[in-house]
Amino acid sequence: MQKRAGFTLVELLVAIAIFAVLSALGWKVFDYLIKVKERNAQHEQKLANLQQAYQQILKDSIQIAPLASNVNGEIEPALVLQNDRFVFSKIGVTDPLLQGIPAEERIQYQYQADTQRLNRLRTRGLNAAAQMQPESSVLLENVEQFQVSVLNPNQLSSWPEYEQQQDDLMQKKRLPKGIKINLTVNGVAYEWIFSLLNTDYLEQKQKS
């Protein structure tokens, strides 16, 4: 009588055990790859947000202009850096539809340590009443530290440089040579330096 070929119970148990081990290893590898992909996506998004903030600050720095601002009847310097307040005048806004949008704006960077947000406040025009609310947008999140300095060419923690000349309109229109921003985002420290290209704007305007 011919014996029927097949697997014994022990062989089946061994095969099942091997299959279970391979499945567990395969799942761990698959789970690891998914987590790596998610981390890479988050890292890429953080870099994109950082680059977007850098480009916005770069654009603002290029358009900073020596134009004093009139806030509720009080003349304010073109650029103010006092007690962590950083505000400046800028030009370059276009109005292709001729809607009467002024070419000048007043910009302020406002850091909120409690929410770790860097906000950008924008007021259209250089003449503003006290009750006017600026347009606010989040420039960057997860900012653990933010500090602005001006370069003239020495590094200064405040501007205008000479307090006793604050009443002089020409002094209020002066700009430093550049600005330096130190910030820490997601545990990484950065130092950004920007040259102010419109420091001679007023002189060119007067000659034209």
Identify the notable features of this structure and list them briefly.
208 residues; 4-stranded antiparallel β-sheet; 12 strands; 32% helix; elongated
Description:
- There is one protein chain.
- With 208 residues, this protein is α+β, with helices and mostly antiparallel strands.
- The chain is 32% helix and 33% strand.
- The protein contains three helices and twelve strands; from the N terminus they run H-E-E-E-E-E-E-E-E-E-E-H-E-E-H.
- It has helices spanning 9-63, 169-172, 201-207, and strands at residues 69-71, 74-76, 79-82, 85-90, 105-112, 117-124, 127-128, 135-141, 143-151, 155-156, 178-185, 188-195.
- Strands 3-4-5-6-8 form a five-stranded antiparallel beta sheet, covered by helices on one side. It has a four-stranded antiparallel beta sheet with strand order 10-9-11-12, with helices on one face.
- It is elongated.
- The relative contact order is 0.14.
- The model has no long low-confidence stretch (mean pLDDT 83).
- Residues 33-60 form a coiled coil.
- It is found in: Cell inner membrane.
* Biggest beta-sheet profile: 5 strands, antiparallel
Could you report the average pLDDT, rounded to the nearest whole number?
A: 83
Low-confidence runs? none
What strand order characterises the main sheet? Answer: 3-4-5-6-8
Count of alpha and pi helical runs: 3
Number of strands: 12
Strand content: 25-35%
Which word captures the global form? elongated
Radius of gyration equals 29 Å
Q: Please write the string of helix (H) and strand (E) elements.
A: HEEEEEEEEEEHEEH
Residues in helices, as a percent range: 25-40%
Structural class by SSE content: alpha+beta
Distance between the termini: 115 Å
